[in-house]
Design a protein that fits this description.
about 190 residues; alpha+beta; minor pseudopilin epsh fold; 8 strands; N_methyl_site; transmembrane; transmembrane helix; cell inner membrane; Type II secretion system protein H
């Protein structure tokens, strides 16, 4: 009997079809995983810097601020803090007024991804000229300096957003989309 070595055309086509179906399901899941990892890492970086700012405020016994900074040296002008993807700084200050009279303690460069980080002030009536996040020597955030930053993926709309929230008691929290903080702040 004569033995054949190799594959028939039908067998080869079946393997290619199975491989194509597997790739069709795997690629979107992989893209979602990458988007979620990016959002989670960016949120964690902001959360860590906010925790650091609160700790330094208590340790130094003075105001410490976390504000949007596109140059890494000073807070951007008040009211320009809509998208924190440009980066931020942690700075000590004499007051919560937009990083005046302080020293930069830490800086975070802009996102390497296309993700967004939209800031919303949680105060009923935010004071003009205040820095988004500010902690006093007791570690509390004055009500005008409370807020949330919602980090979203632009490249993958189905990725769950993350929120970094600072409320009046001063302790930051990370929430996933759909979660609500103990004080009632919702993450979309």
């Amino acid at each position: 009997m004569h033995q054949h070595h190799g594959f028939t055309l039908l067998e080869l086509m079946m393997v290619i079809a199975i491989l194509a179906i597997t790739v069709a399901f795997a690629v979107p899941a992989y893209q979602n995983t990458i988007a979620m990892e990016s959002i989670q890492a960016e949120s964690s970086n902001l959360y860590t810097d906010i925790l650091y700012a609160r700790s330094e405020a208590i340790k130094q016994g003075r105001f410490v601020l976390v504000c949007q900074s596109s140059n890494g040296a000073a807070c951007d002008a008040a009211g320009s803090g809509a998208d924190w993807k440009v980066g931020w700084i942690v700075t000590s200050g004499n007051s919560c007024a937009n990083g005046t009279g302080g020293t930069v303690l830490r800086k975070q460069a802009s996102f390497s991804s296309t993700d967004t980080a939209a800031y919303t002030n949680l105060a009923a009536t935010p004071a003009a000229g205040t820095t988004p996040f500010c902690f006093n020597r007791m570690g509390y955030a004055p009500s005008a300096n409370t807020g949330k930053v919602v980090v979203r993926s632009v490249s993958n709309a189905s990725a769950t957003p993350y929120c970094v929230v600072v409320e009046a008691y001063g302790h930051p929290a990370i929430l996933r989309g759909g979660q609500t903080s103990q004080a009632g702040t919702a993450c979309p």
